[in-house]
Please model this.
Amino acid sequence: MAGHSVPIDFRVNPAKVSNPVERKTLLQDLLPLIEPFTGPLIETSLCEVPGGSHVALYCSDTMTLAVKLYFNGLISATVEYYTDEVNEHKISNDDGRRLERQIREKFDCSVAKVLPALKRAPSINPYFTSSDDRILEYDVDELLFSEQTEFQKVQIYHTKSFGNMLVLDDLQNLAESDLAYTHGLMNKGLENFKEKEILILGGGDGALLWELLKEKPKYVTMIDIDDAVMRSCAKHLKSVCGDCLDNYDGEHYKATGIQCKKALTMFEEQLSSLEIPVTFTQTSHYVPSFKEKWCFYQVTHKSLKT
Model:
């Protein structure tokens, strides 16, 4: 069960908004394009708002249409409806493309866009954000794990496209389909990990640990601040972490839950030198230079010391 909002946006000559006759004609011409989806629409409100813009509201038996006509010619309309089935779309993507063409032809505008319906308050949230504040929608159908710890909110969702997905503080972190990401993280095929002692700061999902163990290192120590991440991934991301999180202390590895700052200080006290892997190779993809890696270490090291 969910509400649905379908954004419909286009731009017209500002005179069509400021002129009362043209504004009325615009609204009258818009309704027949929307009514095949909503049914007959009745005007319930029409008013001017501060700034020279106008707002109109229409309703049918089961749907509403809200239209804001901005003074600068932007027309922002929203069709809203409610369904028991969360993925039931009254305006499909193909419908939206046809409606865009009809709007461009009817109003002689170069910009017209109909977005897929935004789901409003469904029982399982399908929306997440990127670190730069973009909205991402996943085809989630089940929440498998959720726990608020002293450090973060830990959740695992099942998605139809990517398998189970770890989400930390509402930011998607790792899915079962992300093996290529893990291989890129470890520079697989370019770094030699055999008989090496390796420290992982973070990585509580166990994916990097599991893939590194396949490279036959001497020993891997994984540090993660939140045991809830390791517990949940051991159960729900088994295809990612294998069985390495079933037992935190293995023959060639150890996983432990302490803060990275404390761990780095502890290991620096134990080691006489700190090795930073640097790869010099001719590849078609981007490889950070020694200077970039060294600068990253210096900045990170300084922040951990303060």
